[in-house]
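Reviewer 2 asked us to include a model.

Predict the structure of this chain.
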Amino acid sequence: MEKGMVSIDRWNEGSQAYFLTHLHDDHTAGLSASWRRGPLFCSPITASLLPFRFRGFDVSLLRVIEVGATRALDLVSPTSRAPVRVLVTPIDAHHCPGALMYLFHGTFGWVLYTGDFRWELSSERSQLAKRMLLDVLQGNAIDVLYMDNTYCNPSFSFPPREVATKQVIDIIVTHPDHDIVIGIDNLGKEELLVNISKALNIKIRVWPERLRTMHLLGYKDVFTTNTSLTRVRAIPRYSFTFETIDGLNQLRPTIGIMPSGLPWLLDASKNTTLYASPLKSHQSEASPDLLQHMPHARKLKHNAYCVPYSEHSCFSEIAEFIKVLQPSNISGIVSSTYIYINPRYYFSHVDRYLSDKSCESFKSEVNQMGSSSGCQPSLKVRKEWKIKYVSPRPSVLVRRVSRLPRARRGAKIEESDSRSGS
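Predicted model (structure tokens):
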């Protein structure tokens, strides 16, 4: 597709149509209340949330598109000025509320942009999305796949979210005398919290802005801001630190739970730092297999747990996704993250290497191929994110969130960071 026709999750480009996959901050960078560049296509849920995220946004620019409904866009070629018809079909990304993949079709061929997505093989929603994609393609091959490669590395292996939810509930049940804090983002993991509420027959406390989002999503009776109604509360992910948890324990016994695909670990050498660096933990002599198959909740320290609840696909799910679609070309949309490997390193020989091989044997074969050919994976390493551990004063701690600048409230530590649109 020619440049200047369509932009996805990019808001400073000069295009004729703009598409938003979902409302996470890394996908709305450049979007603002004063943005007026052109029509913005998104899901009904995203359309209902966007005016509250960007107050004053011109809602007449919004074009709501339903999952599975193909829509025709009549655009103009920027070079020849000839009319170009582009067909677009939204597909459920099963990531966070309102998240979509976009399948484009035209004289340029078939292009699929996944945005962030979770392709759980046991999920009915993923199976429905799979059937929908194949029905629209009608046997045609994907020419270009722009794919969420956040965890495109055999080291990452997550259980279904249903299993991870059970792990969170088990932690809460085995600590009946503790308050529970769970780190979440401004959007996402609603199903986790709802299932906790149903299983334990309790309400979940959230901060006021998050309660408004919950109400907009239709959750009227599950969440509250009342501190006296529940011992379980969700807090913005940026405030989930050992400092916060230990400070809360000076007031009441408290357990922290971080639901994330990132391998949150305690630096054993210092016992003072919480970090999320897959590369560093993978190379650690003390724990060489910390990233190999992470199906279980792990205790970070005596009052904090990490549970492998991920809203991004792990490696085996990405492999199955690519095997089904058999794209001619693959491009990762995550250009900078804690560990980055170009997906073409692993999936350049899709038809030959994805048949009946496990992730580990598959990785071994690809590594041997690279060694014999002199080809190395494209690896970009980002400095790990760290939180220093200090002993806080309780009186300061309880006022900390309310005193933070509004722009930082609910800010997230990314599971994925910088992305490029099409």
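The longest strand covers residues 83-92. The first helix runs from residue 44 to 53. We have added this to the supplementary material.
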